[in-house]
Design goal:
seven-stranded mixed sheet, 22% helix, six-stranded mixed sheet
Length: 638
């Protein structure tokens, strides 16, 4: 089903920005260590037409990575300029313009890193992500890939993963999406870039898990045992990459950071008091010289082979730990965590439901065996009422199987008008679209008697299952990569709200292994690249997790959010969370019980045997992000 608002007749780009649409192809996924191979940038006029364009291949001076994806072979790139050769011209094109890209945090991170390597300041001050814009509009699409959006807007895509063709398609996607947003009077998700810069590493060594179990700390009387985790600080006589490769080949695990799991630190100059040395000394981790390492390697002790498929997972799921509350932090009020509700994932019965279209999302649903509810597939926008009124009515809407909408979007199917709602500025748009208006009594009557208003008896929109607070579902074993997308109301919030979404990678004791396992705005990806934060818009942030890439000691990934300053979750309002796989949204939920809390655990993904589970949490705390991090074992500077 395509909304009547899906295809805007004319393109109108907001005149308060100068827009440049771009796409990059890269040698890998991490801007700190991988390189840009190709750039295409198109400068737009206010009517969406192209005023100026820039396109080039780039010689990265390294392996170009997944050639099967981008078709950029070493031979094709050999004669291309290096980034530093085009940096000045490219910076001039970007200067004073707002960058538009699909998954813009990715493109921005790579360009920022390249400008740093070339010795330039990054000229990009603002960016807009078309993926975030598509989510904000709630377009009727199974997923938000560029190819899917091109099909939705009927734009021909000639050569996917070609920077120029992707940028050309994106110009059309952006123009139509921006025009639709203007029609809905929905603000665009533009974010500033000044405070979010990529960290560039001259050489990063990927951690390779050992096939042996970690025997713990080094005991010099016994020697090195295969499976030990070994870190290095400072210069070494042998190149660090060479030394790391030797350790890996010998059955050890080289790590870039020092954590509680580290067996020994190699450092020839402990007087340097590097951060690794200080961490090792504070945690009682042995520190040896490179020469000692060489002697110990000659008489290394065989380790214990890991048992394939063995799990070190917790046997039961505990509530969010009390240790979240940092020492000496007075908590005035806590939201009581609701009991866990386990929902078994059973195959959908082999039978059709009258009036409902088949859907790949529905058939893969974690709640496919759940009986359909009266208002399933509906999106209800609430206008008017107090904060408490909104909380109560959203709860009742969820009980009916509908999903509360935080913004006026293309997905809204009904508008619930409470006291004062008729004077809401959005009411004119509701009338223009001819959306049905319902009242509090309609909702209450539906809960009591199961009444379905006549206008709802038509085919419902496809909708991902909605989890209740505390509900738990198994994630499909066939898929390891997930995006946990967090959003809040985009309209009328202004700049006074500073919300940070974060993630903690926790061991069996609900503690981080090292500070690198705290993913936040100053550390956007963990050491293994398994969990990454993406700031997609001014009211949208995502945590992307590759469960197969998580280290064995990680038992749980907690996703939380913090409201900075004097604001609270009561001021912010409802928070929407969706869990997206490669083919579409797996599940969603809305959390809106916050009042005076400044931090809130939104969701957690945890191991249960060999299965990963997702839990909708919604537990708030009065303390700030620093106290929450300390409670999970992060060392926070005063």
């Amino acid at each position: 089903m395509t909304s009547a608002l899906s295809h805007a007749e004319t393109l109108r780009l907001p005149a308060d920005h100068r827009w440049v649409v771009l796409d990059v192809e890269t040698s890998g996924m991490r801007s700190a260590s991988h390189r840009v191979l190709s750039i295409a940038a198109l400068v737009l006029r206010e009517d969406g037409s192209v005023e100026r364009q820039f396109s080039t291949l780039l010689n990265p001076g390294c392996d170009p990575g997944p050639v099967h994806v981008h078709n950029l072979t070493p031979d094709r790139l050999a004669g291309a300029p290096r980034f530093e050769d085009i940096a000045e011209e490219f910076a001039d094109l970007l200067s004073s313009r707002t960058m538009v890209a699909h998954n813009a945090s990715f493109d921005y991170g790579f360009l920022d890193a390249e400008f740093q390597r070339a010795g330039f300041g990054t000229p990009i001050e603002k960016r807009l992500c078309t993926l975030a814009l598509s989510r904000r509009l709630e377009l009727d699409v199974p997923n938000h890939r560029l190819a899917t959006l091109a099909e939705y807007w009927k734009i021909e895509q000639v050569n996917a993963h070609d920077a120029y063709d992707d940028a050309r398609v994106l110009v059309e996607v952006f123009g139509r999406s921006a025009s639709l947003a203007e029609t809905l009077q929905l603000p665009l998700p533009v974010v500033g870039c000044k405070d979010r810069r990529a960290t560039v590493h001259s050489r990063e060594i990927k951690r390779v898990p050992s096939s042996f179990t970690n025997p713990g700390r080094l005991d010099l009387t016994r020697g090195l045992v295969q499976g030990m985790k070994i870190a290095i600080s400072g210069p070494t006589s042998a190149p660090r990459a060479t030394l790391a490769a030797r350790l890996t080949d010998a059955g050890f695990e080289f790590t870039n950071t020092v954590s509680r799991q580290t067996s020994v630190l190699v450092c020839d100059n402990t007087a340097s008091q590097s951060s690794k040395v200080r961490k090792a000394e504070s945690d009682g981790i042995p520190v040896i010289s490179e020469q000692q390492l060489e002697h110990l390697l000659e008489r290394a002790v065989p380790g214990e082979i890991k048992i394939e498929g063995a799990s070190v997972g917790v046997s039961t799921v505990e509530p969010v730990p009390d240790t979240m509350t940092a020492p000496e932090v007075e908590v005035e009020r806590e939201v009581v965590l609701v009991p866990e509700m386990i929902v078994s994932a059973q195959p959908r019965p082999d039978e059709s439901t009258a009036g409902v279209r088949p859907s790949s999302i529905a058939t893969a649903s974690p709640l496919a065996n759940r009986k359909a509810k009266a208002w399933q597939g509906r999106r209800v926008l609430i206008l008017g009422g107090t904060h408490l009124d909104g909380v109560i009515m959203r709860s009742r809407i969820l009980q009916l199987g509908a999903r509360p909408s935080l913004n006026f979007t293309t997905a809204v199917t009904e508008v619930l008008v409470l006291e004062g709602g008729e004077s809401d500025k959005r009411m004119a748009r509701v009338t223009d679209r001819g959306l049905p208006k319902i009242t509090e009594s309609d909702v209450n009557e539906a809960l009591v008697s199961g009444v379905v208003p006549a206008h709802m008896r038509l085919e419902s929109r496809l909708s991902a299952p909605i989890l209740m607070r505390g509900e738990v579902v198994d994630l499909p074993a066939a898929q390891s990569s997930w995006s946990i997308n967090v959003a809040w109301r985009a309209e009328n919030l202004g700049d006074e709200f500073d919300v940070d979404v974060v993630a903690f990678l926790l061991d069996g004791k609900n503690k981080v292994d090292s500070d690198q396992d705290f993913v936040f705005y100053n550390n956007t990806v963990d050491e293994d690249g398994a969990v990454e934060l993406s700031v997609d818009g001014d009211s949208e942030q995502s945590v992307r997790a590759d469960l197969d890439a998580l280290p064995a000691e990680c038992q749980r990934v907690v996703i939380a959010a913090a409201v900075d300053g004097d604001k609270t979750f009561g001021d912010l309002g409802a928070v929407s969370v969706s869990i997206d796989g490669s083919d579409g949204t797996f599940a969603t939920f809305v959390l809106d019980l916050g009042t005076v809390e400044r931090t809130m655990v939104l969701a957690e993904i945890y191991r249960r045997g060999n299965v990963w589970r997702l839990r909708a949490v919604g537990q708030g705390h009065n303390h700030g992000l620093g106290a929450m991090a300390v409670g999970y074992g992060v060392e926070v500077d005063d």
